[in-house]
Each structure stands twice: as structure tokens, then as C-alpha cells.
Design a protein that fits this description.
Shape of chain B: globular
Structural class of chain A: mainly beta
Helix content of chain B: under 10%
Oligomer: heterodimer
Number of strands of chain A: 9
Structural class of chain B: mainly beta
Order of helices and strands of chain B: EHEEEEEEE
Largest sheet of chain A: 6 strands, antiparallel
Helix content of chain A: under 10%
Strand content of chain A: over 45%
Strand order of the largest sheet of chain B: 1-8-2-5-6-7-3-4
Number of strands of chain B: 8
Order of helices and strands of chain A: EEHEEEEEEEH
Radius of gyration of chain A: 17 Å
Largest sheet of chain B: 8 strands, antiparallel
Number of helices of chain B: 1
Radius of gyration of chain B: 16 Å
Distance between the termini of chain B: 22 Å
Amino acid sequence: MQHPGPALEPRQIGQWAEGARAFTLKLAAGTDLMEGLVETLQALGVAQAGINLLGGELAEIGFMTGRPDDSGYRIATHNGPWHLPGPLTLLGGTAILGLDAEGAALLHCHGLFADAGGKVRGGHLRSGECPLGAAGLTAVASCPQGAGFQVAFDPESNFPIFQTLNAFQDADPS
Amino acid sequence: MTDPTTPQDVRVEEGRPGRLCVIRLKPNQDLCQGVAAACRRQGITRAHVRSGIGSLNEAHFEAGGRHVVVQGPGLEILTLTGEVTPGTAGTLEVKLAGSVCDQTGEVKGGLFRPDRNIICITLELLLQEWLPLPEP
């Protein structure tokens, strides 16, 4: 599909970590899923992480999906937000913790969940709108040191988006 | 007599996890081929997916012996697992499985076909090297 901006090289960017830490995290009922992950990892001194959501329970959920962007500004944009009442069983998910454009923590999180009838849905979870239910949440975080992601505006897709940190270091300052 | 603790049809590779590598794939490249290209750039020959999130134009899965197609664009990748291993003649083999949702939130999944899953906006990936011990 044709994006609004030019295709920027290189098409793959990567960065080795200089070290790593790893954690199993168990968050309690009432904690917001995304805020709880960010605050817990920040308290551990972690700014970058890849997180696997192993399962848990949501008291409710706010999420978005993706859809074509009919305006042409982007080829796809977010749909929603949608809100569902709980309890919902979190079946799994993935998150990347990095930095926003100003250097504050930002968590990009997708998950899938089942309602009381067993119907499974999924999407892009919204921070502050996913309080955990009675079973809480278990997640595993792999935390690179000296490498990671930070948001920068991407003129190819017209989205502010995670780039690897060395993409900033390697950028021509002129 | 067969040792019941080491069945003949089980292949075990002892090793240890190595370094982590963060990767971003830009739009309009196949998921598996893009991961292979990123691994070649980084000098990775064996790795496991620790975390992966992003979106696809369309999803093409192998699931239950069938080819499953999910129409997009903007399909959210919800889960991603898999590994990178050496292939034949210096190539890399990338096997990825996972799930996506469409704009209604409906979820489908399977093994990602290695040529038809085009990145929509981005893929953010955390790989970890797998370092096998030398075979005795």
C-alpha cells in the first residue's frame, strides 16, 4: 500500500542491548493494567522492556482497533475506543515500554480477552481504562539496557511511532 | 531398550539465552522476511521472539491445515511468538505464530505465512539470541 510519505531507508533498524534484566510481575486487583506495568517497572529503574502478558482478569476494558483511514492522511488509523464491562479474562498480549518524544515512559500494549460467554476479542489497550479484576495480572518483562525505543514522528506513515534509540544517535545533527 | 526419559523422536538442544536486540520493521515488507533481513543486518542466526507488536495490511495464516486470510489494513498484531534458525545455503528460517484482530476486534491466528504478511505501520520487536552449547 502507498503511504503518504516517502519510504525511508533502512527498512529494518535494530540495536543490540549492552545488558539485560528480566522480571516476572504480578499486579493486584484494582490496579490499571498499563499504568501498573509502567509504574512497577519505573520503580525497578527500568525504562525499556518487551512484555508478555501471561494472563489475568480485567474488571473492564477500554481498547481500540485499526481500520482504513478514508481521509488519506494515513493508510490506517484507530477505530473506537470501545469499552466493555468485566469481568473479562485476559488471554495474552504483548507490550513494548519505551520513551515518548519528550522522554517520558510510554507503553504500547495489545491484548486479547474473553468475555463471560467465551467470545474472544482483542485490540490496542488504552492506558487508565483497563483496571484489573480479582485475579490480577501476571506478566514477564525482558528489559534491554543501553538499547530500546523512543517515539519520533514518522513522515512515511504520518504516525508518531517507536524508533530504535540508535536511530536518534545515528541521525545527522545538521 | 529405549530410555523412556529421552524418546527417540525428541530433539533437544541445550543452550543459553544471549543478548537482546530491539528491532523496528518499517511498512510494506513481509513480516517473516523482514525479521530475517533485520537478523542478517544484526548478525543474528539463532533467536527467540521475546515480544512483538505492530500491524499488518492483511494477515495470511496457516491454521488447522488451511490458509486463513484476514482483511485489513490496520490489523493489530496481538501476540507474536517464534524463532529464527539457520536455514539452508546460508539463509535464515523465521517461524512465527500469533494472533491479530480486525477493526471489529474479532481475533484470528495461526502460523504466519512467510511471504504474504505485509507490515502496515510498524513492527516493534524484541529478539533474544539463542546460543546452543556445542554438541558433545
